[in-house]
Amino acid sequence: MIRYALLCDREHEFEGWFGASADFDDQQARGLIECPVCASKAVRKAIMAPAVAGTKRRAQVQSPAQTQAMMMEAMGRIRRHVEENFDDVGDTFASEARAIHEGRSEERGIYGQATAGEVRELIDDGVPVAPMPPEPPKKSELN
C-alpha cells in the first residue's frame, strides 16, 4: 500500500491509500477521488517527506473541545452535501434502497428514514447503507 498526502483545489489536506502508484492516476482520471471535506474532484498529490524509520514525529496537540468542534464541522459538511445532492425519499428509504440495489429503480444517491429492523435486513442482504450524521446543534443550544 502507498499513502499519498492529497490536496484539493480549496487547499483541504487529506490522505489516500492506494495499492500501487498507478492506482492514484487511474482513479483520478475516472473521477473517483474527491475531497472528504468539500467533495471537490480537483485533487492532486501534495509534497510529502519520505517516511524514514527511526525519525520522531511531532504530534499536533488539540484540546478535546477543538477535536469535537472539528468533527462536528466535518459531519455538518457531510450532511449538507447529502441533503444538497441526494434525493430525500422519506420513510420509503428501505424499499427504494432495495429497488436501486436490485436494479428495479434508477441508480442514484438517496437518503431518508428507516427502522432499525429495516436497516438490519438491508445490511444482511448486502445493500450498502450508512447512517446520516446528526444535525449539528444550533448555536443557541451550545454552551
Account of the protein in words:
This protein has 143 residues and is of the alpha+beta class. Among the domains are: 2-45, no CATH class; 86-132, no CATH class. The protein contains 4 helices and 5 strands. The chain has helices spanning 21-29, 64-85, 93-101, 116-124, and strands spanning 2-8, 13-18, 43-45, 87-90, 110-112. The strands form 2 sheets. The protein has a 3-stranded antiparallel sheet. The longest helix is centred in the middle third of the chain and has 22 residues, at 64-85. The protein is globular, with a radius of gyration of 19 Å. The N and C termini lie far apart (43 Å).
**Termini Cα gap:** 43 Å
Task: Report the strand count.
Answer: 5
Biggest sheet: strand arrangement: 2-1-3
Q: Which stretches are low in confidence, meaning pLDDT under 50 for 5 or more residues running?
A: none
Helix content: 25-40%
Proportion of residues in β-strands: 15-25%
**Treating each run of at least 4 consecutive H or I residues as one helix, how many helices?**
4
Summing up helix and strand content along with how strands pair, one would put the structural category as alpha+beta
Whole-angstrom Rg: 19 Å
The main β sheet shows up as: 3 strands, antiparallel
The geometry reads as globular
Helix/strand order: EEHEHEHEH
Mean pLDDT: 87
